[in-house]
Amino acid sequence: MKPRILLLAAALIAACLLAARADSLSALHSWLNYAQQMLSREYLPLPYPAPPAPEEWRRMNATQRLANVRARLLPKLHDELAAKQCSLGQPAFIRIFKESHELELWLQGNTSEWTLFRTYPIACFSGTLGPKTREGDMQAPEGFYSVTARQLNPASSYHLAFNIGYPNAYDLTQKRTGSLIMIHGDMCSIGCFAMTDPLIEEIYLIVAAALTHAPSVPVHSFPFRMTPERLSQADPTHLTFWQTLLPAYTRFETTHRLAP
């Protein structure tokens, strides 16, 4: 049996067992979505030396990890940024689109307009389209979040990570629960956004550099690209919530500026 078929079979068995235990169709949908991501994962090659082997990485403390990443990435990263007329330390902004498994990293130069530096494929997130509402629901959040320097975690068990700040003020008014939602390395995740180890290294360095000059890095997490056509096909279960995300999406799409 081919490895991909074995992986799908294992995921489907896990999905059925979890759905039976939870007596929940949403759990089954979540695990089927997870299995599909495992099989359709995309890879983005970056021009840096590969990370150390996992065993070597786990033996490093946070300071050693960051020194290792900087030594491998910084010489070429400056060139990559310059090719987009960007530089390390500029304000950063992240947009996530769950449906297309994309994470966009934008940088802001001397003007208030933002430049797209790179679009990364998200290796995996759990759950389906729709917001996170409670601890243990396996959902990756949707909404407007932010990362501060205190939320960076170079000692993460998932290579490198940063907390996106769920729950936000809106989540709290809706009595949503849960915590420690990260953008991190590795290729698997429950509730977070897994980017693979090579991709998180570039993302992490840019976000950390931005936070040396700005108090936070905004993270906007959307279910999909919120075009009128796509919204007309949206699941009505979450449509009222998604309409609250639309003005910020539209403003940035039309002006490449964030709301003040």
Commentary on this structure:
The protein has 260 residues and is α+β, with helices and mostly antiparallel strands. The chain folds into two domains: 1-40; 46-255, L,D-transpeptidase catalytic domain-like (Beta Barrel). It has eight helices and nine strands. The protein has a five-stranded mixed β-sheet with strand order 3-2-1-9-4, with helices on both faces. Strands 5-6-7-8 form a four-stranded mixed β-sheet, with helices on one face. Strand 2 and strand 3 form a beta hairpin. Helix 1 packs antiparallel against helix 2 (25-40). The longest helix is centred in the first third of the chain and has 22 residues, at 62-83. The termini are far apart. Residues 1-10 and 12-23 have low confidence and may be disordered.
Q: Note the overall shape.
A: globular
Looking at CATH, the homologous superfamily of the largest domain is: L,D-transpeptidase catalytic domain-like
Q: What does the largest sheet look like?
A: 5 strands, mixed
Oligomer: single chain
Query: What is the overall pLDDT average?
Result: 88
- Give the % helix: 40-55%
Helix vs. strand class: alpha+beta
Could you list the spans in which at least 5 consecutive residues all have pLDDT below 50?
1-10, 12-23
CATH topology of the largest domain: L,D-transpeptidase catalytic domain-like
Q: Element order, helices and strands?
A: HHHHEEEEEEHEEHEHH
Radius of gyration (Å): 19 Å
Strand content: 15-25%
CATH architecture of the largest domain: Beta Barrel
Q: How many beta-strand elements?
A: 9
- Compute the number of structural domains: 2
- Give the CA-CA distance, first to last residue: 55 Å
Number of helices: 8
CATH class of the largest domain: Mainly Beta
Strand order of the largest sheet: 3-2-1-9-4
